[in-house]
Amino acid sequence: MKMKMRNLVGAVLGLVLAACGPTESMDETQAPSQQEQGVLEASCTALGPTIITHACGHITSGPYASVTASASATDPSMQNISTTHTAYTVTLPGSSGSYSGTVKFVPNRASSAWAFFVNSSTSLVLKDSSGATVSPAFAPQSISVAGCSLTRVVVYNNLTQSAAYTLTVGPSASSTVQIIPERVEDNRVYYFQDADGDGYGNTNVYQLTACTQPSGYVLDDTDCNDANASIHTGC
Question: Which of 82, 96, 171, 174 has its CA 20 to 30 A from that of 32?
Answer without folding.
Answer: 82
